[in-house]
Amino acid sequence: MDADGAESLPAPLTPGLFTQGVGDQRGGFRFLTITSNSNDPVTISKISLKITFMPHFDDLRDYTGYFSAQTSGFHDPNFLTKLWYAGAYTVQTNTFDSREGRQPCPGPHGWANNASTGPVDGPVLVDGAKRDRNIWPGLSSRFLECGFLTRLWTGDMGISTHTQFVSTNDLLPSKNSLVVMFSTQDPNTGALQYSGPPINAHGSDTYIAWSLIGTHSYFLYTGDLGFVKTVWANYTKALNFLQSHVDETGLVNVPTEFQNDWGRDGGAGHNSAMNALLYRTLITGSDLATHLNLPKLASQLSANATAVKAAFNKLLWDDAAGMFRDNETTTLHPQDGNSLAVLFNLTQSDEQVQSVSKGLTTFWTDIGPLSPELNDTIIPFVGGFEVQAHFVAGQGERAIDLLKKKWGYMLYTPLSVQSTLVEGYTRNGSLGYRAQAGYNLDHAYTSHAHGWATGPTPALTFFVAGITVTSPQGATWAVAPVLSGLDAAEGGFETPLGRFDVKWVVKNRRFTLNIRTPKGTSGTVILPGTGAVKVDDKAQASRASASLQLGGGEHVVTQDMD
């Protein structure tokens, strides 16, 4: 299944015109390789290509979002801008018709892309343009395919849905993919599968959590409460299934049969990443319950989240190392569990946040962090969460440094296509992802357009440009740029309420911020310094940490940088 095959055609063709069928299309390719098995001359003409990804878009360049910033100390000053658009384009290639999934047992030339990805008609968001072309709300799988035990590391909606939002505001594929995942629910236990058809992989607590978190993300960006009501019975049953794995410690004790994750080792027991995901699931579930006018359930889920946070710190915090352990029985401090703990606010003090942010740098190499929970592997999925964790810590220059090391390698290495983002690679930079561990994932099999690698795209919008929505559709919002050693940045996106744009510049020790948000909305602006502040040329009271409340519309905020 890992061979890169070829399609054989007779020569000459009769009647002379060949049109490739949908199932025989490779997916994600922008080039054609033709090889003759004969010494006879061959004439080829009138070659045309139709792009099949994002079939519901008339113009693939119709981005509703944007980002721009220049960086120093790197060979390409436009690197951050290029990276943002590479992530946006990668997710576009991961969006296609629900009837064009990858067959798990392909035909004689090694692939077939005419499988149904589930009970929806329309675009779906999948993990990769070529492989696996399957819906994965979380991350990866181990499954028996055509008689071969194979482990796959695949893309996930936990990152790519956010990339969709900030780049195209196209959430229909995410919605359809969520519909597919809820359709896989076990009616007895409430468990969801961790991939959709045709792979239909089972056995992952983390993937169930990602589906539930993704439901909230879709609602936050669209305000589609009707969809939430449609899946609510499935949602609560799946959430109860996860909570049934909480033991006397107050944390999920992941059963061995539900430990599958993004390809990491050691996912069973009181796994830190899973429990960070449980916490986030409870927080977002409480918010959904509030919007559904279920105050009792909202309060209960919030209380459960508080209990998980306390237990997480009690059982897993390693004060000597200043990081969270993978579980209470190991000295391993994982990249995923620590990054998610900061990003999802499981820390209890800023000292913890700073300690974890610094500790994560001990995994770094010149081309990215080596994930200690998966030997010899540099994994863009987890790296996307680490980048955000550094921004949350206010360590923007550290986050940019990580982007330069890891995504700089991915974008500029001659091993990549230099326009989309790869699935993963090893310590020596080889794209033979995990081949050293005995798995047959060579260069031909490793995905070169993988949605889970696009974490920098939303991170640059949310943290560097600094604009986020804090309630459905952006009725409330926040602007809090992390300057990150840059002189200027700008970015924006759309929601059903309208445009959200931010542009800031630091010049002559003055920070100037231009904000445009829809009228009728309101937001909080958190400024980077402590100097004198003006809003629309009117002086404001200085404060140790400048925080302003503004209504929608256009505003200019300035601050003296002491």
Sheet with most strands: 9 strands, mixed
Count of individual helical segments: 12
Q: Strand share of the residues?
A: 15-25%
In the CATH hierarchy, what is the class of the largest domain? Mainly Alpha
Mean pLDDT value:
89
Low-confidence stretches: 139-155, 435-441
The number of domains: 2
Helix/strand structural class = alpha+beta
Give the distance, in angstroms, between the N- and C-terminal Cα atoms.
61 Å
Evaluate the radius of gyration. Answer: 24 Å
The backbone outline, from C-alpha atoms, is: globular
Number of strands: 19
Task: Return the CATH topology of the largest domain.
Answer: Glycosyltransferase
Which architecture name of the largest domain does CATH use? Alpha/alpha barrel
Helix content: 25-40%
Nutshell version of this structure?
The chain has 562 residues and is of the alpha+beta class. It is built from 12 helices and 19 strands. It has helices at 79-93, 157-167, 172-183, 205-222, 225-243, 272-291, 295-316, 335-343, 350-360, 380-392, 396-412, 456-465, and strands spanning 66-68, 95-97, 123-125, 140-145, 148-153, 317-318, 323-324, 364-365, 368-369, 377-378, 425-426, 467-469, 476-479, 488-495, 498-507, 510-526, 533-535, 538-540, 547-560.
